[in-house]
Each structure stands twice: as C-alpha cells, then as structure tokens.
C-alpha cells in the first residue's frame, strides 16, 4: 500500500500514537472509567492532523444509549472531512466517524427499545471513532444474532445508501440496468449485491484494473476506469442504462447523463474527485461547486431524464429522515437474514492505524470496506 | 372569452376559413374522396397563420392504420408550435396536433392488432388536426366501449403524461403529497384524479382565482397563483411536499425545488411561461433556455432532491418509448373502466374555430381539455 505524503514527522507522531494505543488497551473495559480513547482530528489538513488521544467519557442524555464500541466504518467522506473539504465543516478539534457498532453499556431516561447488552449498530453525526459513543436511539439498530461486529461496521452506511438510491430514489425493477462507478468500493459492492436480489438486472461496474480479478463475479460487465467506458457500455446496451450511481462527480456527471435511457436516473452520492492529494487542493469544495457542470431543467425535459443527489448523512442529521432510514434498514436486515446480502470487508485497522487506513482508501486500494477495530492492537512495524 | 390580439384582418380571414369549413362539411364522408380538410399552419407566428384547407388524402404505409378522425386534443404545446417556440421545430406549412381519436378506416399490410371499424385513439408526431390521419400502430390504442370520442380526445396525452410522471418518474405512494401548478388544466385535472386512486394523498393545486369554484373539489388545498403559495403550502405542510409537477418553468423551478421534502421529486413537463403574447416574444425558447435557473448536482446531493423532466412526445417520437407508454395506457384504461378516472372536457370547437380555441388556452381560460370536434360546424357568430 502506498504511503505517499506520509513523511518522517508523521511517522514519529504515529509511533507516539501507537504507544498511546497500547497503553489504552490496558486500561480498557472498566465501565466506571472516566476516560476513553478516540481518534481526534486536531485541524483540517493531512494525515498528521490525526492522532489517538484520551477524551472524557461521554454520558448518554435523555433518549440516548451509551455504546461500548467494537468497530467503526471508514468512508471516503472521512478523508474529505479531514481536509475540511465539505460544506459547512464543524470546527476542529473533533472526533471523526459516522458509523460504528458495539454493545449497549447504559441507557438514559426516556430511552425506549434498547437494553444493556444489546448488540447494536449506529449512525453518528461525527464522534464514531471512539471506544465509547452516545447517540439518540433514532440512529441505533439492533444487529442480527449471526452478524459479526466487523460485518456490522461494514453494513449500515453503505447498504442503507445503496438500498435507498436503488429502491427509493430510483425504482429498480426487473430487467433494468445499473452503472456503478467505483464498483470495487464498499457502496459499489453493496449495490452489486442488492441488484442481484432483483431478477434480470444488468450491472455495469467501473473499477481500476487491479481490482478486476477480485470483483468480476459481483457485476455483469466490468470496465477499467481508464478506458472509454461510455463506448464500451453502448456496445453492449445501445439504448444506455436505467440507473447511474456516481460518487466521483466532475466530468463523470455529463458522461453519465449521456448514458441514461429515457426516464433513466442519474444519482450523485459523493464527490470523491474533489480529493486529489493528501491535503485540500486547489480543486477544493468551493471550486468544485462551480466547476461541476450544472444541469438545465429544460434539457432534462427534452431528454426525459432524472438527476438526483443522495447524502445519507444529511438525510439523517439535517433533514429528519431517520424514519425513512429505519424502514430501509429493516428491509436490509431481512435480506441479510435471508443470506441475500453480506458486506465485503477489505481490511481491519487499529485506531492507531487510522492514517494508513485513510491512505489506502485515498489510493483507492480497497475492495469493500475498511474497518477500524477498536480492540485491535496495531500491527508491529 | 378574451380575444386580445385577434385583429380585424384575422377576423376577415376567419370568415373565409369558416366558409371553407362549411363547404368541407358537405363533402365529408365518402371514403374514396381524394381530399380531406385539415388545419394548416402556414408559418410560425400569430393566430392568423392558421387556416382550414383541403389536403391530399393520406394513405397508410406498412404497419400503419388510416383513421377517420372524430375529435382531436388541443394542448398548450400547440401554441408553442404555432409560435415556433420549441426546440428544432419542423418546417411549415404543417398540420399541427399530437393526438386524436376516431374509427379505423383501412389497415395497411403488415399491420396487426387492428381492424376496420375499431374505435381508437392515437398519438401523432404532428398531423393530428385533420379529418383523416395515418399512423403506425405503435401509437394507436383501442377505446373502451363506453368511452365517447370527446372523452378519448381528452384522455390520451394528459392522462398518460400524468400517470407516467406520478408513477414512473416519481413513485407516488400512500400518504404522499403532490403540488400541481395549473391545477385547472387538463393535465392538472388528470393528476388530481390519479392522486385520488392512491390512499391518503394530499394534493396542493395552484390555479387562477376564477377557476377555484369549479375545481375546488378535485384537490385537497387550492391556492391562487398570485398569492405566496410557497408560504401557504408550508403553513399546512412545514416539511414540504413529495412531488411537484410544473408546466410553467421559469421562476417556479427554484421556488418549487425549495418546497420539496428530502427525497422529493420536482418534474418539469412544460414551459408555458415562455409564451407571453400571441406571437413569439423576446422571452422566446432560446432565451428561456439560458434564463432558466440551472441546477448544480452537488446542491441536489446536499439537499437529497430529485429533478426530472418529462416530455411524452419526445419519449414517443424521438426516444422509442412506445412500449413504456403502452404499458401506462393499459393501466389507465383499466382505471377508466373501473370508473376511477374520467377526463374533464372544457369545450368543443370546430376545426374552423381553432383560433378561438387557442386564444382560450392562451388566456388560461380553460378548465380541463379543449377538443377540436371534426364533425362540428362552427357556431354562428
């Protein structure tokens, strides 16, 4: 795995973190502890802004549960947060992370539906990368008995996003076709699995060449990101595709719209092309906003096309969508229990290894999900 | 009914047309006739560009049926065609009109599914406003036995458009809310009726004040176009609405987007605001294209919104969507036979009265559909 941009200064700091981690492992568990370990982002910037430190133990407020975290999900969005490359970023220092799973350790007053000892997964509006989190029960879901914590940390965000895009924003039905950019990523793999639950759906995946052997069985057709995939798709399906899922933004938007069949839907669910280097680039959020090709509604009218955006975190934390998400999660857990879907895990990392994990996702080296395993000790150098 | 813009020159010409019409009525019917009456648009412009003349009798080609027309639908789009205010307009002289109904008079070779005498409705890519039309069977549908020709001419375009927007582009479900601009128009009334086939759907209608008494029972809430309807809707539904259907374009686009709930869908299906006077205005198609507020996909991403365009005629005649339309028509005919929907007819006009009919739709004076009744004689002045 590449380590571009990780200089010696960082490496030294990393060693310090690593020791902090080991120390922390030793003090873990006592539920009356006053402190916990967490990944902290000291300021927006490169990997050197991340460290593992002790923080005051959080306590649940009315309507919240306190969760002893076992594993957390790492998403591309976490890189954009680190760079401050998002709209209205919160003020650092902050604890990153939007999803985790673990065991309910305590339950505040006016909190219904959960008991101490429940195995749960949860969405958080930041603060997920810690040994302990507190969050309102609206964002907490019980894990199936046979789901591991690793699976749970890989499940919630990616499968809910994939499900809602395919079935709520678009209306995936028998016989349709779907193009997914970043087919090797965690959302891409979730999309591929969910498509396979509907009869006769054709999935066109775009992925870097080196992932093809690993993921070729998950999609119908696989194309290299560097080929003229628009032409390749049109060779197979001259009329285009019904649904395009794009987490890249940028020039892919126009290309993808041109691939849509009449009544087809293009969904933008991320903008990872905005991240070009380890630190926030000239091609940053504000710039990108203006550089992205805007869409004229009259063009959509003439072409009978649909363009949509999907941000699960905004839906959950800014737009009051927790009931919609709960309903999607219920359907997904049923599919999981029927063994129709199963999260693909790329790799497990200790909290102290968050920088290497981020570098791996930055380099698009992953196939499936990167997990921060809170109980894992850093792998010796 | 207002007659603004109809000057004396036109009135004189109209009298000539009227006589032509009367003469034509006398020669109607013989199926071996070499000529037929049709409305002809001599060039793009005002009402004076329209006249009723004789044209050579069309004969069906392979895969086509020849239909003795009983009635035709008049749509706002026909005004835009008259002004040349559409993208890539065909070269005049031309016969306008996109829909009609009548009786199959002959069937060409390689034409399956229809017999002489069948009562049918049909979409045409122009040429509908005539005594006889020929069209491929892909665009022809059998009428239910108890449907009148007047109903049929009011049915196809508006109900298919309303159905596909509500159920194919958006996914109207129980408990949702729909805002429809031009609630008193033919599409607006079709939307209202289709919404009533789904439990617990709230319909917000926008219409000119003078229509309110007539249409108030068709929608849940009705607002005057000139009030601040955005605020009025928000008073009733603070979270906004699930679906907005807009045939106006212009400033309504931004306003309507702001009214959408998360995961809500805005559908543009017309741009009637582009028509401001009797002739093509400064605010014409090319101008409008640039004046319409363009949408940034990243904004859709942040807000979890969907924006779509729907043009039934492009779908049918440019994008090969006749199977999609056939499927919608089948469902609509079933709803009609269950007496769940019934087209609202505003008024019937002789071919020779097409100018007055167009003026009425231009002035937004209609409630429901304007029909050209081919067998009707002009009402004496």
UniProtKB/TrEMBL annotation, chains A, B:
CDD domains: MDR3. Keywords: Oxidoreductase. InterPro entries: ADH-like_N (IPR013154), ER (IPR020843), GroES-like_sf (IPR011032), NAD(P)-bd_dom_sf (IPR036291), SV-ATPase_mito-regulator (IPR052100). SMART domains: PKS_ER. It comes from the Eukaryota. Gene3D superfamilies: Medium-chain alcohol dehydrogenases, catalytic domain, NAD(P)-binding Rossmann-like Domain. The keyword Electron transport does not apply. Residues 45-372 form the Enoyl reductase (ER) domain. One of its GO terms (molecular function) is oxidoreductase activity. PANTHER family: SYNAPTIC VESICLE MEMBRANE PROTEIN VAT-1 HOMOLOG-LIKE. This is Enoyl reductase (ER) domain-containing protein. It comes from Gambusia affinis.
